[in-house]
Amino acid sequence: MKTVALVFILSVIGLSEQLRDPRCFPPTNIYRAPDCVPDITSENPNFDCQGGHFVRTAGISMPCTADHDCMENMEPNEWCNSERNGFQWAASGCHCDLKLKTCIMQRFDRNYNEIQWAFCTPRNRFRCEVSDHCSPPKN
User: Fold this and answer.
1) What percentage of the chain carries pLDDT values higher than 90?
2) May I ask which residue range the UniProt record assigns to the signal sequence (predicted)?
C-alpha cells in the first residue's frame, strides 16, 4: 500500500512539473562554469552565473550555447520601462548565461542594489506592456 501511495505522489509531482508554465520558473538544469560567481548561489537555479536573482516575467526560456544564439531577442515585455522605474540595464543585453544555458536579460535595481535576471522575449513577440504574466491579477 505504501508503494502505491509513493508512486501516486511521485506521478503527481512529475505531472505538476510538466504543467507549470516554464516562463514563471527558473530552469532546473544548471551547469558549472569557471567564469561564474563561486559562492552559495552557484548551485541554486534561482541565481544566474553572476549571482543575479530570478524575476518572473512573460519571457521564454530559450536554450543557448553562446551569446550569438540570443542576439535577436529582446528584454521581457514587462521590463520595457525599466529605466524609468529605477532600474539600469546590464551592458550585455540579451545573452547566454553560462550556468543556466538559456537566453537571459539582466538589470540592476538601484533601490535594492541588486542584479536581477529574467528570460528574454523573442523579437517577434516583444510588446511593451505593463502587465505581469506570472502574478495573479490585481483586483
Assistant:
1) 35
2) 1-18
pTM above 0.85, yes or no: no
CA distance linking residue 45 with residue 35, whole number of Å? 16
Is residue 118, in this structure, part of any structural domain at all? yes
Are 60 and 119 spatial neighbours (Cβ–Cβ below 8 Å)?
yes
Cell of 91: 551592458
pLDDT of residue 16: 44
The rounded distance, in Å, linking the Cα atoms of 42 and 44 is 6
| Total number of domains constituting the chain | 1
Residue 81 domain flag: yes
Query: Does residue 43 form part of some domain?
Result: yes
Q: Is residue 19 part of a domain?
A: no
